[in-house]
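Hi team,

Filling in the usual template for the complex we talked about on Friday. All components are listed, including any nucleic acid strands or ligand strings, so the model treats them as one assembly.

SUBMITTER: L.P.
PURPOSE: interface mapping
COMPONENTS: two
RESIDUES: 649
SEQUENCES:
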Amino acid sequence: MTGRFESVFLDVVTRAMVPLIQVFAFYIITHGHYSPGGGFQGGVMLAASIILLRIALGEESYRRFPREAGIWIAGVATLLFTLLGFVSILFGGNFLEYAYVVPGMDAVELRYWGIFFAEVFIGFLVWGALVAIYDALVTGGVEA
Amino acid sequence: MSQTPVLIPALLLLSALFSLLFGLRSARLGHLVAVLGVLGSFLTAVAGAFGVITGGEAIRYAMGGWIPPIGIELVLDHLSVFMTLLITFIGLVVIVYAPRSLHFEAPGKAAFAWPAIVLLLAGLSGVSLTGDLFNLYVFLEISALAAYALLAIGGKAAPVATLRYLIVGAAGGGFYLLGVGFLYFTAGTVNMADLASRLPELVENRAVVSAALLLVLGLALKMALFPMHFWLPDVYTHAPSAVSGMIAPIMTKVSAYAIIRLFLDVFPPGYFTEALPIASTIGWLSAAGIVYGSVLAVAQHDYRRMLAYSSVGQIAYVGLGIGLANPIGLIGGLLHMVNHALMKSVLFLIGGAIRLRTGVTRIPDMKGLGRSMPWTMATFAIAALAMVGIPPTAGFFSKWYLLLGTIEAGNAWWFGVILISSLLSGVYFFRVVEMIYRDPAVDPAEREEADAAGRERPPLQPGGEPPASLLGPILILGVAILAVGIFNVLIVGALLTHAVAPLGG
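RESULT (copied from the run log):
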C-alpha cells in the first residue's frame, strides 16, 4: 500500500489541496475555544491531509513526513497537555485548573489561553495518532 | 485541597508518556521511568490511605476547579483507597519483575509495553477513584485498550484470543454506556453522589430499571462472570506471563468493584436486592462459575490455562460476596479481591520464571522443579495453600468471611459451593505440588529412551533459581500472602467495614 497511484490529475489536485486543507485545519484548531470545531476536528483534518499525501504520492510522502513522526507528535502533544495539568497543581490550583497556570495573570484571560493551548495540544495529538494508526495498518504493524 | 486523588492516576499518565518518549531511544530507560511512576503512584496511594483512615471521611476532588456535580469529581474513600493500593502494589511488583521475562517471551516488544502497562494501571486506578459514571466508562476503556495491546503481544494465538476479548469488551463497554445514557436522560446527572440523591424518587421508572440492568450486564461481561467468561481462558493462556500476572489479578476485579460501587453508593439501598433480583442473580451465576471454573481447572494440563480457569472460579467469589448482600459476606468478597490478586499474580509470575529457566509450560513437565528452584517452589506451595484456603494464609480468611456470610443469609447451597470448590482447588494445586516435590526430574537417559520409542521428548530442565529481578518480586508476593492473612483484621477494620457501611452493618 506504500506504492502510488500513477495519475497526473491526482498528483496535481493533491498538491493543490493539501496546503488548503492544512490551513483550514489550523483555523479550526485555533478557533476551537470560542466557535464550533476544535482540536479533535482540526486534528482529523491535518491527519487526513497527510494520509492523502500517503495515498497519492507514495514513497515521497514518507520522506516529507517520516513514519516515526506520527507517534512522536502524538506523544509530545499529550505530554505537554499533561504537564499543563501539573503546572496548575504547582501553583496552588487543582489538576488542569487553568486559572493557576501563570501566577499573577488575570484568571479569566488564563482560562481563555488555557483552553486555547489545550485545543492545540489535542489537535496535534489527534493528528499524530491518526497518521500513526494509518502507517501501522499499511505496514502490517511493523514498527519503524 | 489535598491533591492525592488526582496524583495517583496523573503520575501514572505522566510516566506513561515519558516512558514512551525515552523508550523510543532506549527500552531500559523507558522501563526505569515506568517503575518510578508506578512507585510514585503507590506512595501517593499509601499517603492517601493514611489521610482517609485518620480523617475518617472521603477526600473529594474537583477536577480543574469545577465544582461537582457540574465538574468531574474524584473521590478517595475507604473503598477506592483499598482498590488503588491493590492496583498500584500489584503493578509495582509486576513491573519490577517484567523486563527479563518479557524480553524472553515477546522479544523486541518491550519499548512499547512499558507505556501500555503504566497506562493500564492509570485506567484501573482512575476507575477506582472517579465519582462520575461517565468518567468511569472513559477510564475503563483506557485500561481496556492498554490491555488489548498488551495481551496481543504474546504467542501466535494471542492476537486471535485478544480480538475476541476486544469484541466482548467493546460490547460490555457499549452496554455500560447505554445504561449511563438512560440514567442521564432520566435523572439529569452522571455524578455518583448526585445520582444517589435523585434516584430514590425514580425507582419505579422503567428507564432506571433498564439502566441498572444494562450497567450490571456490561460490567459483568468485563468481569468475566459465568457464563460471560468465555473470552478469558484463551486470553490469559496466550499472553506473556508478566502481562497475565498483571492483568489477571486486577483487571476483572475492577469491574467487580464498579458493580459493588453501583450497588452500595449509587442506587438506593435495597434496589439491587429487593426491588430487582440483581444481587441474587449475580450470586447464583457466581456459584455456578465457582464450580465450573474449579472443575475445568482440574482438567487442564497447561499451567497457564489451569490458572485462567481458576481465575474464572475465583472472581466468582467476589460475585458471591455481592450476591450475599450482607456486610460480612461483602467484606469476604472484597477481601478475596486482595487475596486472589496476590495469589494469582504470584502464580503467573512463577509460571514465567519456570518458562524463562526451563521453557516448560505444561504441568507434567514440571517434575522435580522443587529441587532445582527451591525458593520459587516454596512460594508456589504457599500460594497453593492460600488458594485452597488453609490458615494462616490470606485465602483462608476471605473464605471464612464468605462462609459466615452464607450462614447469616441462611443459604446452604452457597455454603456447600465454597467448601466443594476449596476441595477442588486442593485437587488441582496439590497435583502440581506433588509433581514438583515428589517426582524426580526428567533425566537425560529418559529423553533418549523416549526418542528411541518415538514418543514425545520430555524437555530438559537446566533449572536453577530465576535471576534476582524475578525471584525478588515472587518472594515479596509470597510474604504478602502470609502478611495479609495474619493482618487481615487491620484491613477489614480500617477500610472494609467503612466501605460496606451503606449495607447497615
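MY TAKE: The two ends of chain A are 16 Å apart (CA to CA). Chain A has one domain: 8-139.

Thanks, L.
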